[in-house]
Amino acid sequence: MWSQIRILALFLGPAAAYALVFLILPYVSVLRFSVWSVENYTIHQDLTAANYWRIVENPLYRTAICNSLLVAAIVTAASVVVGYALAVYIAFFSGRARSTLFFLLVIPLWTSFLLRAFIWRLILGRQGILNSALLWTGVIHEPLDILLFNMFSVCLTLTYVFIPFVALPVYAALEKIPKDLIEASMDLGGSAWITLRRVIIPLSLPGVVTGAIFTFCLSFGDFVTPTLLGGPDVLMVGSIIINQFGAAFDWPMGSALAVVVILIVATGVVLATQLERRNG
Amino acid sequence: MLKSSGREGDAIVSFDRVEKRFGEFVAIRNLSLDVRRGEFLTLLGPSGCGKTTTLRLINGFELPTRGTIAIDGEAVSDLPPFKRCVNTVFQSYALFPHLTVEENVAYGLVIKRMPRRDVESRVRDMLERVRLSDKAKSRPRDLSGGQMQRVALARALVNEPAVLLLDEPLGALDAKLRRSMQFELRRMHQDLKLTIVCVTHDQEEALTMSDRIAIMNSGDLIQLGTPREVFERPNSRFVADFIGGCNFLPGSVDGAGVVKLADGTPVKERESGPPRKVTIALRPQKISLVSPQAATLTAVVRDVAYLGTTQRVALERGAVSLHAECPEGGAEIRPGTLVGLKVDPEHIAVFEEG
To answer: Is residue B82 within 8 Å of B131, Cβ to Cβ?
Structure first.
């Protein structure tokens, strides 16, 4: 019996150690820091809820959290719409180009996220491709400033980044739908659109939920994109947290904000999975 | 999808010189066939013979490469499946897993925007007819194979199609269930006065359920006739073998029309013609075993298999093997003994393929 326990420990040991060191301890650590405070660049370990009060009271934090929620919501909605359409196209309408298109969809995920975000600065900038094209065709006479360093550029960039995150799980879900279900729907009088609405979308919903959760969680806490493309007006909670762990040196505050982010994201995930479960 | 308004017996589906190719592969070669209104027609044949392709040409999931297809008088060659008044019961049943049994059955009616009350009453009646009223709110995953099949049937029938298509409907069921479903389908066909086209590779199924059987092989229609016609008067060696099984013996026919086995034993007489080689076909069920002195044809018993009410006797005539199916009981037949074979010349078929 002891040898069985030893074998069990050998198999589970590394996984348990990983879970402990990289999952449980960090959460615990962040929680602990969030109830401490900072004075004169030293951390006081007396328990206090002051950080959380400051988050509630200071409109700056409220604005940041609302901005992040807004961006996450817009990006999730846009990515789901475009990502779903893309997945449907590749799964049903692409014919022989299917594996090529799938490959093209996946390749950007192998490129650095930073690079993919930064490239939009070049596209949307005053001397970027978009402005140059508009100037050249005569639609405008002065380069547009409104393309960059605002909510629009942040949302656009994040949507571009997260479309594959939605398209891939949706594509996987679409592939799992038995072809004869689609034929059955058409046999019973359903056109392509009706079949999409009544059979394909309901059966691929789990893929949509997976993609949406990924997109929402990752875009909510993102700080790279607002830093590169957001300009001074788009303050997102991720940027503030990074600042607290950097120049501002208020780790407890940063941790408290991090806990709030975790709570919001977790709520979103729970809601999404409940929604999925109810729809069978 | 109106109920067709023609007379019983006229053609409700017509194939006119239809060819279907998949690239280089010819799945259906020059098929001309009429499905009569109100009949139960079975497309029978081995795998790859084109029967499923023929079915898919009717419901619109395949389009002919050449020739025309008409349903209820109208050419449908370009009509997509969702516009045809044809419904199919798929081999895998294809029930929608995310809908209840009720919702599955109602699917076609809801798409047609039928008023909810009418939908509910029609669905209720149909579920009663297939005896699944108590499963109305269940999901397909909670049903047995036989129940799923009845839901698929109800889902198709509730739309009152002009033609109902069945794609290997009984393949997934066990033998006992298969037999009871065969009778149930036949009964439903008679009660509802439907036109049914069924695809199967099981000849017993075809013989039990059909008004007519269309036997296909490698894209060609080999024989079309009633079960009795194809069984008792097969037009080719293939049909004789496929339906009922057959013993094939090489032989010849001489100038006077006497049909002889290879060793010269005469078995039958026909009208005179040029002497030529032929194939003689004997149905195992039509061979009676008698004492060797009482028959011109003899053979040695090699083995006897007990099948309950019948026994299968493996026989040898020199180099030729054949088998007979005889009723059980009577004198015991022992391996190694010589027996006489008695066959009514009426039941001996002669095929020109030497």
So the answer is: no
